[in-house]
Amino acid sequence: MLGRGRTGSGKTIAFAIPLVARLAASGRKRRAGRPRALVLAPTRELATQIDVALSPLAKAMGLNTTTVFGGVGQGRQVDALRGGVDVVVACPGRLADLMQQGHVNLGDIEVTVLDEADHMADMGFLPGVTKIMQATPEQGQRLLFSATLDNGVDKLVKKFLHNPVMHSVDEANSPVEAMTHHLFEVADADAKKDLVRTLASGTGRRILFMRTKHHAKRLAKQLSSQGIPAVDLQGNLSQGARERNLAKFSSGEALVLVATDVAARGVHVDHVELVVHVDPPTEHKAYLHRSGRTARAGSSGDVVTVTMPAERRDVAQMMRAAAIKVTPQQVTANSPAVTTLVGEVAPVRHVAPEQPQQQRQPKQRTAESDTAGGGRRRGRGGRTGGAAQPARTGSASGSSGAGRRGGRPAEAGAGASTGSAGGQRSGAASGGRRSGGSRRASSDTVRGGSAPVWSSEGGYAAGRGTGTESGGNRRGGSRRASRPAGSAR
To answer: Which contiguous run of DSSP H or E holds residue 426?
Structure first.
C-alpha cells in the first residue's frame, strides 16, 4: 500500500491497528533475533512516538515491541532482540549496524512499514533503507507512507511495492483549515529578539524553530533566564536529554520548546497552540512539517513566521510553494496583532534547560605533584624528598638514607630533570636515584612511549625517554631495570 496524508492526520494508528491484527491472526511464534514486523522511521523521536502508540495495541494482543535507534548504547536493544520480539520500530542506521553484527535477521518479517519515506530520502537514508528492504521477504506486506514521491521515493515504490493500492487523504501541500498563518516582519535583530520573547510568554505550549543547534540551545537559555520556562531539542543533546526535555514540555513544566528541524516531524504533544518560525525554513516542505506540530487531530493552532527585510523575497517564494496565502504585517513586540495572539502572559518561573554531558578533563599536574617525594607513593630510594621542581624543569637533590634494595645508602646527588606532557625526559644523576616529578616522585620512573629501551650510558628508558646515570638505577617500562652503567644488554 502507498499512503499519503498530511502530518497529524492519523497515519500511525492507520497502520498500527491492521499490523497488530495481522500478526495476532497469523499465530506464528516469535524467535530470538527474528522479528515479525518492522516499522522504519527517520528520527528517534518519531520512532519513540510510533512505539508509544503501537505498544499498547500489541500488548493487548499478546505481542511485544522494541525500538532500535542510535544515540544510545546498543546493549539493551540487542538483549531485547535476543529475547524475541514481534515488532521492531527502528531508524535505518542502527538497524543496519545490528544486521551487520548478526544480532537481527529480517527473514521472518511479515509486515514492513516505511513511515515518512520522503524525510528519509532527504536525510540520505535511501541506500540503507534499500539494503534493509532487500533483507525482508518479498512476499510480505509492505506499506509506504510519504508526503511526496520525489527525491528517490518513487524508486523505492517501483522496486519494493508490487501493484500497490494508493490511498491519499489529501494533497501534499494542502493547508490545514484549523491552522492560522501569520507573517510578522520586524525592522532589525533587536526588534526580532523582543518579538520572539513576547511570542514565547503565553500560557499555552508553543514550539520555536531555529535553524542551528547552537542558536536553539542559546535561545532556550535566554528565555529560561528571563523567567519563561523553556527547554531545547537539538542534535547535540544525548537521547536521554532529549527525552527528559520532551517530558518537561509534555507535562507543562516547560511551556516552550526551542527546536531545530529534528522536531519538525514525529513530535506530537497535545495542545500545542503556537508554532513560531524564528528562523524561516529554506524550503516549503520543512515549513509544512514544522507548522504541523500545531492544529493536530482536529485542534486549532497558529503559526507565526518572523522575518526581517532581507528575508522578504525568499520567504514569499517559500510561502507560494507551500500554497500558503498570508499578508505580511510590520510589527513590534507591542503591536495589537502580537498581543492578541499571545493572550494571557504566563507567570515568571524558571526551568533549567538540559545540558549536554561534559567530558571529563584530564587531571592537571601541579607544582606540588612535581616535588621530589611529593607524589602519592615514595620511590624505592630515600625516604625523604628534596627540592621542588615547579615546572618539571629544575634541579633535584638526591635523598639521603638507606635504599630498600642495593645494600648501600643513597648518596646525595644533583641532577637536572626536564620533562614535557608528551613524556620525554632526560636527566643525569650522580651516585643515587633521582627524585623527579611523577607519581612515584622520588624514583626514576620515566614516562614515555611504548617499550623500554636500554641506554648504554646506564639504564632503561621508557619509549622516547633518554637518560644517563652513574652508579644509579633507572626504571622505565619494566619493573626492574637496574644495571651498572656501560654494561651490555
So the answer is: strand 425-430
Q: How far apart are CA 178 and CA 257, in angstroms?
A: 22
pLDDT at 415 over 80: no
Q: What are phi and psi of 282, to 5 degrees?
A: -90, -15
Residues 6 or more apart in contact with residue 235 via CB below 8 angstroms: 213, 260, 262
Q: How far apart are CA 290 and CA 179, in angstroms?
A: 12
**Contact residues for 38 (Cβ-Cβ < 8 A; gap 6+):** 87, 88, 90, 106, 109, 111, 112, 113, 132, 136
Cell numbers 624514583 label which residue?
443
**CA–CA dist 137, 142 (Å, integer):** 10
> What's the burial of 406, exposed, middle or buried (CB within 10 Å: 0-12/13-18/19+)?
middle
Quickly list DSSP for 29-65.
PPBTTB-SEEEE-SSHHHHHHHHHHHHHHHHHTT--E
Residue (of 284, 287, 303, 307) closest to 295 by Cα position: 303
Dihedral sign computed on CA atoms, order 449, 451, 454, 458: positive
Residue 178's pLDDT band, with cuts at 50, 70 and 90, is: low
Residue with the larger pLDDT of the pair 125 and 95: 95
- 346: how many CB neighbours lie within 10 A of its CB? 17
Dist CA 128 CA 120 (whole Å): 10
Contact 426, 443 (CB under 8 A): no
β-strands 179-185, 328-330 pairing: parallel
What's the CA gap between 303 and 206, in Å, rounded?
10
d(CA 131, CA 5): 26
Residues 280-291: pLDDT tens digits? Answer: 988 888 888 788
> SS3 for 258?
strand
- Indicate whether 279 pLDDT > 80: yes
Please name the helix (run of DSSP H) or strand (run of DSSP E) that holds residue 257, with its range, or none: strand 256-259
CA distance 173 to 105: 38
Alpha-carbon distance of 483 to 42, in angstroms, equals: 65
Give the C-alpha separation, 169 to 185, whole Å: 34
pLDDT category of residue 269 using cuts at 50, 70 and 90: confident
